Amino acid sequence: MARPRAAARTVEHPDLTQVSLQQVLEALADPVRRMVVSQLVRAGEDLSCGTFAAPVSLSTLTHHFNVLRGAGLIRQYYVGTTKMNALRTGEMEKRFPGLLSAVMAACAAEAAGAA
Q: Is the pTM for the entire model greater than 0.85?
């Protein structure tokens, strides 16, 4: 007998009008989360969870994705069984103009100084 078909998997995302600047800054305070955001910016496209280079375990990386999603920085969705991650650049720019680009520029400058 065939298994009943399951409903499509969905992920809840906050309305950015309900996200505070404090939440966004706390999410971006962690270096692993900044690394995730930087990788999304550099890729210029949505990335699956398994494609990120991070110095943490997959379960810890999942926690970081949850924090970024809760702060409204990323949108996650499924393509089959693969969870994809998209940076909410346009929405974030409307809510906090210039914040994400300023943080990413600071990250790039810090990385260049360390090299």
A: yes
